Amino acid sequence: MVSLVSRTGRQYQRYNMVGCRQVVGCIPYRFKNDFEELEVLVISSQKGQGMLFPKGGWETDESKEEAALRETLEEAGVVGKVEGELGKWSFKSKRHGTFYEGYMFPLLVKEQLDSWPEESLRSRKWMNVEDAREVCQHSWMKEALDVLVHRLTHSRRQVNENDDDEELVEPCSLN
């Protein structure tokens, strides 16, 4: 069952050793046209100025992956498979003037919900990588997107190379 209420408050938020708040997020993605076209999902910021990828606080009662999945569900209304961490970035919040440590994960989207906790606060939009890179308001998220694209391109290249290495072999006959 999916919770249709966002967590609130910061009493369970994680901070690193030097006091930076730790946040996690996902880059939701899917393939279109028989895996030919990569699309990513961006959401509007709560203030409605600019687009970004879903992210939020990592709480003490959850793993990074669980927090990333929760934040993505709450903010973007999608669920799927959280994949290996894209990296860790340190950044300063323009709004709060404080330092953060952000972790990003790819999320291969399996389902897009019609209703989600922050649907009245945010809009969401699927777009190609180039457009998403253009509208994303955070440079650290753009870097995470670049890592994702490199990872997906590299893994597809390996699959294609392995396909090319296979030889056509006649099945053995049972005589």
Automatic annotation (TrEMBL):
Could you say which cofactors this protein requires?
Mg(2+); Mn(2+)
Q: What are the coiled-coil residue ranges?
A: none
Signal sequence interval, chain numbering: none
Q: Which organism is it from?
A: Stephania cephalantha
PROSITE patterns, per database record? NUDIX (PS51462), NUDIX_BOX (PS00893)
Instruction: Please report the name of this protein according to its UniProt entry.
Output: Nudix hydrolase domain-containing protein
> Does this entry carry the keyword Cell membrane?
no
Q: Does the keyword Manganese apply?
A: yes
Q: Taking every annotated instance into account, which residue ranges of this chain make up the domain Nudix hydrolase?
A: 19-149
- Name the keywords, alphabetized: Hydrolase, Magnesium, Manganese, Metal-binding
Q: Which family does it belong to?
A: Belongs to the Nudix hydrolase family.
Q: Which Gene3D superfamilies match?
A: Nucleoside Triphosphate Pyrophosphohydrolase
GO cellular-component terms in the record? cytoplasm; nucleus
Q: Which CDD domains match?
A: NUDIX_DIPP2_like_Nudt4
What molecular function does GO assign, one term? metal ion binding
